Amino acid sequence: MIRDDLSDKLIPLTRGPTYEYAAEVFCKILDEKRLLGGTGCIKGDFWCVCFSEAPISKLSQILAEPMAHGMRYKPFGVMVDKEWLFKLGGRPVIYQPDSEFALLHDKQKFRHVRYEPTNYIDYTWEREWRIHDDELSLDPEATTVVVPSRDWERRILQPHEDKVWRRAAVGMGGAGIPKSVIKPLWHFITLGDLGVSIPEE
After folding, report:
1. Is the CB of residue 59 less than 8 Å from the CB of residue 75?
2. In this structure, are residues 55 and 4 in contact, taking their beta carbons and an 8 Å threshold?
3. Domain ranges of the chain
């Protein structure tokens, strides 16, 4: 059965005060082919890499939500198969009161997210998944790059391809090779082409 509220993909979006800042962070992710974990807002200071299970068609709702310090998610991210992350140990978080944190097995405590709707503490809209690790390597063949528009695709892809070309040239002893023979490393998808509403800056 096909449902528009479920997805077999997971997406971590980049956060930042501006599109330019988020894009700079995002380009570093692509250059290094990895996602770095963090401990922010994770009880127990577990290092995790975080994703959203929300279907790509619903991302406009996530992009519109204000986050900590007034920042919002920005429309730059990568998309991976849920099954792939699950095999690596990724799991959906467990939304529950902090009082139930101690009831979790130590190996499952990284999944805890505070949930107290009577106190307006509700992050269930993020539909979060986590993998307990300090970083996660990305395979370009199994990863789709998500950007807001074709213009941003060009702005991100061109410098990245230039770097790949320069590395290839160095590897060949500085021999000149045409950029046209450099195969794009990443597959891009643009939210604008999918009709996803992108909040203004």
Report:
1. yes
2. yes
3. 9-150+185-194
